[in-house]
Each structure stands twice: as structure tokens, then as C-alpha cells.
Amino acid sequence: VPEQKTRSIRLLWWGFHQLSNFFMPMSERFLHLYQQKNLPVFQNRMYATREEALACPQGDVTLVQDLQTGLIFNQSFRPDLVVYDSAYQNEQGLSAHFQAHLGNVMKIIDRGMGRQDLVEVGCGKGLFLELLLDNGFEITGFDPTYEGSNPRVRRHFFEKGVGVEGRGMILRHVLEHIPDPVSFLQSLSEANHNKGRVYIEVPCFDWICKHKTWFDVFHEHVNYFRLEDFHRMFGSVVESGRVFGGQYIYVVAELSSIHQPRLESTGEFAFPSDFTSGIHNNTPQKGVKVVIWGGASKGVIFSLLRSRAGFPVDAVIDINPAKQGKFLPVTGLKVESPEAVLPTLEPGTPIFVMNSNYLEEIKSLTNNQFTYIPIDHE
Predict the structure, then answer these.
(1) What is the pLDDT of residues 344-372, one digit of tens each?
(2) Do 122 and 171 form a contact (C-beta atoms < 8 A)?
(3) Whole-angstrom Cα distance, residue 217 to residue 59?
(4) Cα dist. 60→34, 78, 123, 201, 279 in Å?
(5) Could you tell me the pTM of the whole model?
(6) Neighbours of 46 (CB within 10 A)
């Protein structure tokens, strides 16, 4: 009888807790963490002219934590403005360091989900899918923006009725772009007949906050995940961890075990109060050319917020030919090849490296003749 009474009390408390959460005022449900105004809607969309880049659509970032679920997201996200097309360039595969990262991911997928009946949701340009195919994996890709000719990729979303079932579903850098990620994963599970495992890889918000990488927060990413979020979202986690120097987190989980997470009473996120203090670090001497290496997400936000702080960037280097000759959103900075910029620089000129994972690679490409400043070091 005492056990039954205790269980009844617990159930009554749980029901009251759920009901109180349901009626929680909006102002009390969300914990405000961080805000930036007028960022580009797409930090990886390249523009053919400077005028187009300056006139690009902009949106705000208002990071909040949902005190019911514990999830962190951009409350100011504008999905109506986010339309992906061929001008979107987010390819990192030209880097040897990133290729090594993809090789490590391939090993995780092999041991966690096997090599047969795999599906990649949001396969983009198909780089990782091609890597898996070349290494004997059997996989089908889905992405409406795919531009290649591989018949293994379908130019539409994975949904009910597509005629494909996956023993393993792969979502690499997809979930951070999806409003209501739990509902999305639930619909993915239903479309896959509530079976199979899922591999999810996303940026690590704990790493972003620890290193105060203010240039890693932008409008396009609506969600900001931590490992603990996935352990609360899935009832059955097979494997999880950190990759790419800790900048990314991953999870392999039973897809059908997805459920709405609940925040523990002590789970409020402690966002660093000095998160943007680094904007004023490494201020250049008068007359010194300011050069950044990396025209992707980090470079876009770094150059924008530095410019607003009074430290404009003069040149942007990127090894991706698809970016070269194009212009970054909002600032209108032109992206150029190393061959176009490096000969114009004096030896020892400081170069801001947007991602320290590529530091040694950049030093090798430039014969180590400049001063390199990795912006993501503590």
C-alpha cells in the first residue's frame, strides 16, 4: 500500500507538472541567452555582384532556451526567407583535414549502422554520399538542391511513399536548419516505418560557448545542440561523441525512440556573459592589411561583426573555386583565391584563420611566411 500511495503521489505530481508547463506564460518558458540584429539570412549563399550581396535578405538571432524541453534555438528565425538553391555553397571537401573527418564519420556509420540500405537525408552536393559509395556502402540520397547526375540521389525530400526504407538514416548538418527538430525526426521515423537507426551530426554549442566563438552563431542555424539534448531526445542511444576537434557532436540512436525531451529542474543553460568580447581582440595596426582565410560561415560573421566594431576586413581567401570571384552577404567582400591575394602581402602579414582545424594545412600552402591568428582559440 505505501508503494502504491507513493506511486500515486508521483503520478499526481507529474500530471500537475505537465499541466503547469502547459499553462506556463511565454515570458517564463523561454530563457533569453543572446541576440544579434541584421545578420544575413544565408551566410553560405554567394552573390555574383557586390550590389546583390549588400542588398541580401537579413534576419535577427535571438537565442533562447525552452525551459520545458531544454532545447536552444533562434526565436527570431524566419523560415519564409530560407530557400536553398544552387547559389548556396557549403562545400568543405576540398580540405584534406575535412576529408579525414569524413573518413572518421564513415567508420562510425559502418560500426553503428552497417553498409547496406542507408539513406542520407539532405545530402547536398553529394560529397559524403559519393565517398560512401566508393567504399562499398549501399546508399540512397535525398536533396531537392542536388545538382549532380548520380542516379542514387533523388531531388526531393525523404517522406512517406518514396519507396525506400533505410536500416540507417544519415543527417549530417541538417538538423540545425530544421524548425521543431523533434517533430521532424518523428516524421522521419514514421516515413521509415518506425525502424532503423539514425546518425546525426551537428555543431556543438558547448564548444561554441567554451571558446566564445561568436562567429559561429548565425540566422541560418535555428537550433544549437549539446550532447545531453540528444540523450534526452532519444530513449535508445547506441553511440555518441565529439568529432572534428570537438566542434561537432554526433549521435547514433534508434530512430523510433525519439520523443519530446523534458528539462530537469537544474538544467538552465549558463551562457557566457563575455561571449562577444573577442570581437575587439587582435586589432590591426594602422595601414596593415586585414586578411581572413575562409569565406564560409565563420568568415561571413567574423568580417561583418568586426566591421561593425570598426575593424573592417580588406581581403577574403578561400580555396573553393565555387566561392572565388563571388561576394559575401551584407559586407559585399569579394572572395579570392590564395594565388590572387598572397603575392600582394608582405611576409609576416597577419592572416586571421577562420578555423584552427585547417591551420597546419594553410601554413603549408603559404610556406609559413605569414603571421597566423586562429580566431577560435580560447
Answers:
(1) 999 999 999 999 999 999 999 999 999 99
(2) yes
(3) 12
(4) 11, 8, 27, 25, 18
(5) 0.86
(6) 22
